[in-house]
Amino acid sequence: MTDVRQASYEEAHQPQAREVGRAEPKEAGEAPKQKQEAETRRRRRPWVFTIGAIVLALLGAAGVYYWLSTRGVVSTDDAFTDGRAITIAPQVAGNVVSLDVTDNEFVHKGQALIHIDPRQYANDQLTAQGVLGTAKAQLGGFSYGAEIARKNFPARLKQAQAQLASAQATEIRAQADYQRQRSLPKQATTQQDVDAATANYQQAQAAVKQAEAQVLEAEPVPQQIGQADEQVSQQKGQIDQAQGRLDQADLNLQWTTVLAPQDGWVTRRNVEMGDYVTAGQQIMSIVAPEVWVTANFKETELYKIKPGQPVKIHVDAYPNLQLKGHVDSIQKGSGSKFTAFPPENATGNFVKIVQRVPVKIVIDSGLDPNTPLPLGLSVEPTVTVK
Questions:
Q1: Residue 180, CA distances (Å) to 94, 172, 189, 192, 374 in order
Q2: From CA 127, how far away is CA 111, in angstroms rounded?
Q3: Running DSSP on this structure, what letter comes out for residue 378?
Q4: Tens digits of per-residue pLDDT, 276-320?
Q5: For the domain 76-83+290-384, what is the CATH code?
Q6: Rounded (5°) CA angle 372-375-378
Q7: Annotated domain spans of the chain
């Protein structure tokens, strides 16, 4: 019975013994492997430290170089090329009969750009010339009348005064005859003589009154001469108006040829042969040769920037083009101040935003005549402030 139990016990624990037996060789094989890995890690550790030190040294050197290279400079990527773009617009309306330039063509000051049909304005010029000639002829007649008035009106007054004196003398004589006839006795005169003397006396009185009226009529000599001179002045005003219309007609005729106001390149041309253009209509623009850079620096950087400081300019469109210039001036106002709707910081909630102020940078050297530099190109100016 005891032997049976012993056999059963050995059978029950025999797999465990076999498993333990199999596990012991595995643990024995793993120990050398772990030792080998530890040894490898121990050998690699100095190299890791060395590489890490080298990386840290390179980063430190790069930081020092960046600090040294940017310590005395200020730059921005909010910058672009700028210049003068002159808007061309005709001053008279009409059909375009000649188009003398094309897109991106370089033109000189005074060169013809387009021609507008001049026939209407030539007719207006002829009409204005005729009106002016008529006004000048009428002025001659009024001037002659004024000269006649200076002579006739004083002479007419003197004539009226002389007639008055003659009528007064006749009245005195008729009055004497009348009184004489009245004082004579009836036997010494006749009724017919008395009636004749009375009639002559009354006619003499009437003649005196008539002469006095003529004198009154002829007395305002200065006023009558002044009226004649006023007509001359009015006609001179008519001549001035006619001359003004003629001058305007001459200008309109000249304006039918639209000329370039200065040297530059033709851009944004939107007119063709046969188009009807109106006065003030934009037909093209001319970009002047002078180009500069407008850089919008932050307001916190302005205290470093002064006129005259040297600037290096990198053009995004031409990486190999190295431009040099200097700070010309700083705009007296931020960009937001001159917008169509400037902010009202005194109303509502206020959020502080760093403003940017345009700085004009003049290009001194580096421009290539064969490389176009259009307006509005992105650039990166670097200002040396120290």
A1: 94, 12, 10, 14, 118
A2: 29
A3: B
A4: 999 999 999 999 999 999 999 999 999 889 999 999 999 999 998
A5: 2.40.30.170
A6: 95
A7: 76-83+290-384, 90-116+256-281, 119-251
